[in-house]
Amino acid sequence: MNAQNSASSTRVDEIAVDIFRISTPVPASVVPGGFTFNQYLIRDDEPLLFHTGPRMLFGAVRAAIERVVPVSTLRYISFSHVEADECGSLNQFLAIAPRAVPLCGRIAAMVSIGDLADRPPHALADQERLTLGRRTEQWIDAPHLPHGWECGFLSETTTRTLLCGDLFTRFGERHPAITEDDILEPSEAARIGMDYYAHSPDTGRLLGRLADTAPTTLACMHGSAWRGDGATLLRSLASRLASTASSAR
Ligand SMILES: [Fe+2]
Ligand SMILES: [Fe+2]
């Protein structure tokens, strides 16, 4: 399913079975170089939204979700870490989805979401699994990767899709919904220009743990989703980060 929301420039594309990328472009006049904000909707008995988008996009994201499932049926509102584009409209979604709860790691629940959210979060431990119906998600703690103590990722184990948040961020407002082209070089250009990684001593080990999930689809928050050998790509990113760190010393 590929659909353009006529009320906005927000697109909805199915990038893996029952996983939908909701993407809104931001023009270069607003963000130099242009940008995209992506959310991912997993359609199952207990629908899950990963990233809410910032509050300014709430109406567009809500309308896009409605093209796939009734927004009132959302069960989990999840995200990688606490930032506006990750969970800015969390409470707005909780208000219109009465069965929904925030879904995050234990650090996020303890430090922020237990207070910020209008409903108590469902906190997942590292490696803990959660069944949505036909498919199972696994939470992976990743503190400070790329930033934020509370950071973590969801692995969608049925389709081997890693919901990888800000990893592999790319600028530009026009991207295909999913690509098999190289995304490492353009994301490295963005990373080196913005230096948004925390450069923790654990970065390489954490990327190795994500690679161990052997993802075949990476659900990126900014730019296209990607299909290919995710383990190799994640290990390549770890090597690039290690070489950047050693050259900075
Ligand atoms: Fe971030
Ligand atoms: Fe982001």
Your description of this structure?
This protein is α/β, with parallel strands linked by helices and 249 residues long. Helices cover 28% and strands 27% of the residues. Strands 1-2-3-4-5-6-7-8 form an 8-stranded mixed beta sheet. β5, α1 and β6 (76-78) form a beta-alpha-beta unit. α6 (203-211) runs antiparallel to α7. 44% of the residues are buried. The model has no long low-confidence stretch (mean pLDDT 95). Bound molecules: fe (ii) ion (2 copies). One fe (ii) ion binds at residues 85, 166, 221-222.
Largest sheet: 8 strands, mixed
Overall pLDDT score: 95
What count of helical segments does DSSP give?
7
Distinct ligands: fe (ii) ion
- Low-confidence segments, given as residue ranges, are none
Question: Distance between termini?
Answer: 48 Å
Characteristic terms for this protein:
249 residues; alpha/beta; 8-stranded mixed β-sheet; 7-stranded mixed β-sheet; 7 helices; globular; binds fe (ii) ion
Outline the fold blueprint:
Blueprint: E1 2-4, E2 11-16, E3 19-26, E4 35-42, E5 48-50, H1 58-66, E6 76-78, H2 84-87, H3 90-96, E7 101-105, H4 106-116, E8 122-124, E9 129-131, E10 136-141, E11 152-156, E12 161-165, E13 178-179, H5 184-194, H6 203-211, E14 217-220, E15 225-227, H7 230-248
Parallel strand pairs: 5-6, 6-7, 7-8, 12-14, 13-15
Antiparallel strand pairs: 1-2, 2-3, 3-4, 4-5, 9-10, 10-11, 11-12, 14-15
